[in-house]
Amino acid sequence: MQIIKRIPVKQILTESSRQALKDRFNKKYDQLDNECQQLLFEQRKMERNKEFNQNDIRQRFSKELRLRKERMKRLQYQIKQLETLPDGEELKVDEVETVVNVEEGDHYEELLKDRQIVIKDGIVIRAR
């Protein structure tokens, strides 16, 4: 049997990786901000159309806006971490899914132990 497990991807901070991550985080932040503006525009547009239930519209759009704003807060936190952590520290930058084979007799805790991928300047240096 196979199961899917999420594992973190951590970046070892260097001067070049710090700037690349900051650019990437800022780009994602700007994209989410644009999406929020677009959602607000679409919400106002749909609210003017009386064919739709106003409460349903507000609930759907507020949920989508809330999710994007939470992601924006996480990005702000990561940018703040980038500024405070020294070079050589590990920063979680992503999560990926991996397939784990499970067989009868396997030690379950061993299969699900804390695994992670560590990269430095775009190169995988550890997959533990």
From TrEMBL:
The organism's taxonomic lineage, starting at the top: Bacteria, Bacillati, Bacillota, Bacilli, Bacillales
- Protein name (record): YlqD protein
Q: Which residues form a coiled coil?
A: 22-85
* One Pfam family from the record: YlqD
Q: Please indicate which superkingdom the organism of origin belongs to.
A: Bacteria
Give the UniProt keywords, A-Z. Coiled coil
